[in-house]
Every structure is written in C-alpha cells, then in structure tokens.
Amino acid sequence: MNEHLYKELDWRLRVFDSLSFPTLILKPDRSIVSANQIFLQKYAVEMDQVIGKRCHQVFYGAETCPNKVCPFEKVISDKSGTSAMRRFTTRTGKRLYEDRVFSPILDDNGEVAYIMESVRDVTRQKHLELALKETEDFLEKVILGSPIAIVAADRYGHILLMNPAAEELFGYTNTFAIRHVTAHQLYPSGTASSIMRQLKQSRGKLPSVRTTIVNAQGEEIPVDLTASIIYEDEEEVATVGIYTDLREKLAVERKLKDAQAQLAQSEKMASLGQLAAGVAHEINNPLTGILFYANLKLEKMVPEDPEREDVEAVVEDVKRCRDIVQNLLAYSRQSSPMKDIIQLNAIVNQSLTLVRDPKMFRNVKIERDFSDEMMLVHVDKNQISQVIINLVINAVSAMAGAGTLTLRTYRDKVRGKAYLEVSDTGCGIAAEHLSKIFDPFYTTKAPGEGTGLGLSTAYGLIKENKGNIRVSRTSAEGTTFVLEFELYQAVQDPTAEAEEEM
Ligand SMILES: Nc1ncnc2c1ncn2[C@@H]1O[C@H](COP(=O)(O)OP(=O)(O)OP(=O)(O)O)[C@@H](O)[C@H]1O
Ligand SMILES: [Mg+2]
C-alpha cells in the first residue's frame, strides 16, 4: 500500500473514531465490520469480541433478532438513512432510550455496501418529554374538568380553546368556536375592545370585572370576568378569560330585594291599616247619627219643601262617606268574611256580570283564558267579587275605555295555589308609583274621579281571605295584577282529588 493510501485510510479511521456517538459499521447481512472507540468504551467490549458478530448478538446477546421490524431492510431498499427508537430496561431496572440512526454507505455501483449504525442515548430527553407530556395532560384535565368557563384566544381574537364549561355558557362547541368564532362575537358590540384596553392598562391582568357576554343564541348573560394576557419573550401571544355565570346569583339578589320590599310594604300596610281602622270607627258612629237624623227630617218634609233638595244632598253625601268608611274597614280587615268553597272561575264570571257597564266597556275586548282544572277556593265570594270589580274598573280606566282586558286563571298544584291574572293594555304604572298604589287615598285620578280606595280595599279583602295581590308586570304596553289564593284541599274527603286525577 502506498503512503498516500495509508494517509487516506488513517484520516478516515480518525473521523470514525472521533464520532461522538457509539457507532458500528455493518455489512448488509448484519455482520459487524468495525466499531469506533466510543462504542467499545460504552459497551465495555474489545474490538475482536464484536467483529464478525451480528448486531443482535452484541446488543441483545440473542442468536435471532428480537425486533419485529429491522431498519436494515428499509435502508437497503431505499438507499437512504432512517432511525429507530429502542427502549430497554437495564439489569438494575433503569429504563433507557436509544435513538439509532442507520446510514447507508454506497459502493461504486450505487448499491449499499455497508451500513453505519450510530447509537444516541436519549434517555434524558425522553424523560423530560414524558414529564412535560404528563404536566400537559394534567393541565388539560384541570382545564377540561373545570366547572368554570375558560376561553383562550390569540392576539387577533381567534379562539384557541373553549373548555366544556365555556361551551355550555357560550353555546358553541370548541371545534366550531375555533373555526368560526372570534372573541369579539362573545360580547356585545364594543365590549371586547374595551376589555382589551383595560387589560393592557392593568399590565395584562384584570382581576375581576362585571360584564356581559353574548351566547350563540344572541342572549346576553351577566358574568364576572377575570382575564390575563399570556406573554412569550415579552410578546403578547394569547388572552385567557375566566367567566363566572352571574344569572343565579343575581336572581337570588333580586328575590331578596323583592322580599325586603314586600316586607316593608306589608309593615306599612299594617300601620296604615291601624290608622284607617281607628279613623273609620270614630267616624262611623257620628255618620250613623247624621244619616238617621237627616232621613228623619226628610220623612217629615212635604215633597214641595224648598229645603228638601238640600237635605237630600246631605243624605247622599253621608252615604258616600259611609261607603268610604266601609272600604276603610275592609282595608283594615275589620269586616267579617262569610266564606264558602267555590270555583275560582265562577267568582270571576259572576264579578264580570256585575261590572258590565255597557258604556264603559264599549271598546274593550274581554278575553277569558280560564284553566278548566279544579280550582276550589275557600273565600267570601262577595268580597273577592269586590276585589275583581275594583281591578277590572282600574284596568278599563287605564285603557281609557279601549283595549283588551284579559282574565286568566290557573293553578299550581305543588304549591297549592290558584291564581287570577287581570291584564290590561293600558298606560301602565310608573315605577315610582308602584310602592304607593295600595295606600288608602292614593290616586292619580282627577278629584272626583277616584278616591284612591279601590286597591287598598282590594288589598285588605284579599289578605282577609288568606290570599295575595301584586303587580306582576307593568310597562307602557299594559299592566297585570295577580291574585293568589290557597287551593282548597278537601282533607276530609280525599276521594275528591283522587277522582280528579283519574
Ligand atoms: N290597571 C292599572 N293601570 C294603571 N294604573 C293603575 C291600574 N290600577 C291602579 N292604577 C293606579 O293606582 C292608583 C290607585 O288605584 P285605586 O284603585 O286604589 O284608586 P283609584 O282607581 O284611583 O280610585 P278608586 O278606585 O277609589 O275609584 C290609580 O289612581 C292608578 O294611578
Ligand atoms: Mg280604582
């Protein structure tokens, strides 16, 4: 061999030995031709222990290769490199990962003459990869399982993630949101930009704000929002929003406020009732006296007496005063009810016949929306009629004589209640007047047109009959008053209800 050739060979051997990874040169029949120094060190073998051996004899100490697929076949057929991951456990129980890279060495005809196999220990990377995956899986489980709605969007507002709680709140599936929804669509117009502005002003962290979101159906939902911007290398990459649905909380707050208002109202009614009862009692006796003597005087007068008209006027006015006192007594619940068991629909029908003043109802359409279920109530039917008449008269006057008056009855068996709704298409009641309409003498009508005793009387009579009266709706489109009664439960005769069930 000439010197030049020696030099060339020496140089190639040096390259082979300086490879940082343990490396073998094999023939296509898998017999080992050479191993570099690092290989010998790493596997603690001598060169002559490996030369001529098959790779599986060195790696696995096995006569046949235990691998189902051998990368050699692919390298030989494709004449290009490939790699394979090998996982194994050492005798001390350590789990190791090796990445093996197979590179073909071609002869002058372009056929695979040798295969170079480098072994790279990737145990550390693999363990890090596994740990990262575990953390990712864990975080994913936390986000997916969270009962709190979480949405992430990129800096352009494209949705990146919507967890199941957010899917439920917003009404989109995660996949649909990622493809078709932007963060701006999740809020009423202008809100998303304003949130982003606040977020930037508060250095990427918005602790908690009350805002409104819009769901897939276009419904606006009040929420509590916590948001933050995620930065990577000081660059804004995403925004995450955490939403708490406030509907339930607000409903409870509203109920509490209503209950407080009702309590205040009934306290006021009770003290006004006491006052009214006192005044009514004091006035009742002198009124009876005035009426008695005025009538007496009238009886003694001849028809052509010039003073007769004056005395008649006194009798009329005193009667009016007596009616007022009667109403006050009803309001302060000083009247004594005569209760019967009666169908609610029957009382409503009877009341309508009593109130039907043709002039007043000329342009009023009356709609009866009666439930045909059994709705027995234990009440004084004359008193309840008076209540209904008062409500109907108010409704018709609120409609200035033209519109639709609807009387609806229904029951709630679970609560044991029967209801009558009296709705009109009238002018409605201003919010600031609502707390006063049941007060005696509160009226918005012109003097002489109303005394303001209709609703206070109705209130007293309804309470006397163990019921409730309230305004359930009022706006410029009209008003609905609801009367609530206890359903009569035939305790002594259980068959009555049973028959009805059949
Ligand atoms: N259906 C209704 N629509 C609009 N406002 C109403 C309605 N019912 C009552 N109101 C308001 O409540 C006030 C009090 O009613 P209430 O029946 O006690 O007295 P009134 O109708 O004014 O007088 P009275 O009934 O003694 O003739 C009314 O003056 C009116 O302002
Ligand atoms: Mg009235």
Automatic annotation (TrEMBL):
Organism: Desulfatitalea alkaliphila
PAS domain location: 135-173
InterPro entries the UniProt entry points to: HATPase_C_sf, HATPase_dom, His_kinase_dom, HisK_dim/P_dom, HisK_dim/P_sf, PAC, PAS, PAS-assoc_C
CDD domains: HisKA, PAS
Catalytic activity: ATP + protein L-histidine = ADP + protein N-phospho-L-histidine
EC number: 2.7.13.3
Protein name: histidine kinase
A Pfam entry, by short name: PAS_9
Keyword rRNA-binding: no
Keyword set includes Magnesium: no
SMART domains per the UniProt record, alphabetical: HATPase_c, HisKA, PAC, PAS
Keyword entries, A-Z: ATP-binding, Kinase, Nucleotide-binding, Phosphoprotein, Transferase, Two-component regulatory system
GO MF annotations, alphabetized: ATP binding; phosphorelay sensor kinase activity
GO biological process: regulation of DNA-templated transcription
